[in-house]
Amino acid sequence: MENFEFFNPVKILFGKGQIAKLRGAVPAGARLLVTYGSGSIKRNGVYDQVIANLQGHTVSEFSGIEPNPAYETLMKAVEVVKRERIDFLVAVGGGSVLDGTKFIAAAARFEGEPWDILAKNAPVNAAVPLGVVLTLPATGSEMNWFAVISRAGTQEKFPFASPLVYPKFSIIDPEVTFTLPARQVGNGIVDAFAHALEQYLTYPANAPLQDRFAESILLTLIEEGPKTLAHSADYNSRANLCWCASMALNGLIGLGVPQDWTTHMVGHELTALRGLDHAQTLAVVFPGVLAERKQAKRAKLLQYAERVWGLRTGAEDEKIDQAIQNTRTFFESVGVKTHLKDYGVAPDVVESVSKRLAARGWTTLGERQDIGPKEVEAILSHSL
What we know:
Helix content is 46%, strand content 11%. A hairpin with a 4-residue loop joins strand 6 (146-151) and strand 7 (156-161). It contains 15 helices and 8 strands. 49% of the residues are buried. The strands form 2 sheets. The protein has a 6-stranded parallel beta sheet, with helices on both faces. It has a two-stranded antiparallel sheet with strand order 6-7. Helix 4 (71-83) packs across helix 5 and helix 7 (182-200) packs across helix 9. It has helices spanning 22-25, 40-43, 46-52, 71-83, 95-107, 115-119, 182-200, 208-230, 235-248, 262-274, 278-292, 298-307, 316-333, 349-359, 373-381; strands at 11-14, 31-35, 58-62, 88-93, 130-134, 146-151, 156-161, 169-172. By secondary structure, the chain is of the alpha/beta class. It folds into 2 domains: 11-176, Rossmann fold (3-Layer(aba) Sandwich), CATH 3.40.50; 182-381, Dehydroquinate synthase-like, alpha domain.
């Protein structure tokens, strides 16, 4: 294993009825801004629970944070934070609301042009503290310091990270996710699965414990994902999905091991250009990454085939090919299609993506920094 440091300060309140603990989790006397998306939390009762448990506080609201949260929208929330002298944010929603709220937190205290946080990796030196009420298991944003933000005007999508945007607490009540549409649940399963793969399917690094941590997440998703889709009110399977999503990207399984993230970087471009859901892009790109990088990832692909998919007999190449196919089949089985044509995306997007990556100088992707525009085009060709 490589050298590493690990710090995760997020307090997790997990289980049934945990929203009732919101009252004691937010700072006494804080001026609060509750952020959320299109309003589904008002239909499923989560909004009422949140507001009831914030009585006694000065509470403002900001709604309308989109899937793939837009910079333009978030900057309107920044204005509210400044005007209302907000000193604590409460994000109620899934990964998009959480990511958007992290950016609001950083941008509201940023001196200069906030877009520089994303486009120029400008350092974040201060942020409004925030807490989370999770309603959609997927991104792991409730337990990490990452966010990804889009800008509609320029068709760009960039990540940023800062320890200052770690949530102070995250409330995860699996019961509030029971009413989610199957599409969102399936997306969440694929998102968590892809997060684990990005940190696992690289090359051996003498990290058997980290490997088995990752494999346990993958195996649990394979077992519990179909269950929770078939039985949306099954608390046990939904709770397992929620915890898998949090653990897949809270930093734990990536400690001391090489990481890839090619699929995510390419996927962000597909979202920016064609509007695909984030998980849809992962399902499209990941099988191609594995197929195109078979030799570079050979040892770990064999391990993946044997330990995760139980492929312990036969020729090595056959096991690898079957593991890649099983990955694609699993994504399809939870309702997330794996070919660009399934989303009405024409083949010309392949060249568009590679050109955009090249224009930004992102020509050394992957755990070995050897994936450039030509390799990206080859990867996407597997999922036309």
